[in-house]
Write a structure and sequence with these properties.
This protein is an alpha+beta fold. The chain folds into three domains: 39 residues; 107 residues, Immunoglobulin-like; 148 residues, no CATH class. It contains four helices and 17 strands. The chain has a five-stranded antiparallel beta sheet.
Length: 310
């Protein structure tokens, strides 16, 4: 009996020994991974910057202010990171300093784009409109008569900064050319107007009037009609056409908005909080308005960018 018990214990001991060896091997593998360390040195820069400075750095502006006056200054915020971020302002000008109001204004956006286009008898006057390569409008022709149709396109949803030159592209998307496209062209355009969001006319072109066209870089347009080929053209005095060239017919022109980005009157207030996408830059203004009866002296006005609470 004693001998048999000894044998049983021996077998159990072998099993326990095997388990211990296995655990030892696993532990050894883990230790080898741990001690085979890799060292990496990382130099990290801040993603969000204001005027090229880290977002939490103080930016000082010396302002010789007069009571009753308002002063605005251009700035920009850039997100150089890989993720979007929501930001907000914590400013002390309004709440802690009596007689000084601080506001944050964004740049003006483009408002309306207006085109007068001929919807001809043949149903081949479908077209699209692009602003700076952004598709903003699609129209499918009705046909049946030569009718000039005024198209007013709301550009506000696209949030295109108004200031600067914008290329307007009129692209014919008809599935096929009409019978006489090689003589008269495919799509006729009379005028194009561009407005900023305050309803102010930025620039316009009377297409077909060479004086009006001057300086607007028209590309891809046909001759002035009806002077070249005659015809009724819906009773219009002058226009130009686009041409059917395979898959698309397009013509472009440049319109310019010259708007004052920083102004104490009438410029939209920046929405707070706001989202900044990766690689996006937002141009804005900080405006300081001083009460007529403010106490003379030197004031420090703080406006601090902070992460937003969403």
């Amino acid at each position: 009996m004693k001998t048999n018990r000894t044998k049983k214990l021996g077998k159990r001991g072998i099993v326990i020994l095997a388990v211990l060896v296995a655990i030892s091997m696993i532990a050894s593998a883990g230790l080898l991974t741990y001690f085979g360390k890799v060292t990496t040195t990382a130099t990290v820069s801040q993603s969000v910057q204001i005027d090229g400075h880290n977002w939490d750095e103080a930016i000082t502006t010396e302002l010789e202010a007069i009571g009753g006056c308002c002063y605005c200054y251009d700035h920009e915020i850039t997100n150089n990171g890989c993720k979007a971020i929501w930001l907000d302002w914590e400013n002390y000008g309004t709440h802690d300093l009596v007689g000084i109001d601080v506001s944050f204004q964004r740049d003006l956006y483009l408002g309306d784009l207006v085109l007068n286009v001929l919807d001809g008898m043949a149903e081949y006057d479908d077209f699209e409109v692009y602003v700076d390569d952004t598709l903003v409008y699609t129209y499918y022709a009705l046909g049946g008569a030569e009718t000039w149709v005024v198209h007013t396109i709301d550009l506000l949803p696209f949030e295109i900064i108004a200031d600067g030159t914008h290329t307007i592209k009129v692209d014919c998307i008809a599935g096929e050319p009409w019978t006489y496209f090689d003589t008269y062209g495919q799509l006729a355009v009379d005028y194009v107007e561009l407005y900023c969001e305050l309803g102010v006319l930025c620039d316009s072109v009377d297409v077909g009037d060479t004086c009006s066209e001057s300086g607007h870089n028209l590309v891809g347009w046909g001759p002035i009609e009806p002077a070249t080929h005659g015809g009724s053209w819906g009773g219009i005095d002058d226009c130009r056409v686009t041409w059917f060239t395979g898959d698309e017919t397009w013509a472009t022109l440049d319109l310019t908005c010259e708007v004052e980005s920083c102004d104490c009157n009438g410029i939209p207030i920046m929405e707070e909080p706001f989202e900044l996408q990766p690689g996006e830059t937002i141009e804005f203004c900080i405006c300081y308005e001083f009460d007529m009866l403010i106490t003379p002296g030197t004031y420090n006005i703080y406006s601090k960018l902070i992460p937003a609470v969403i």
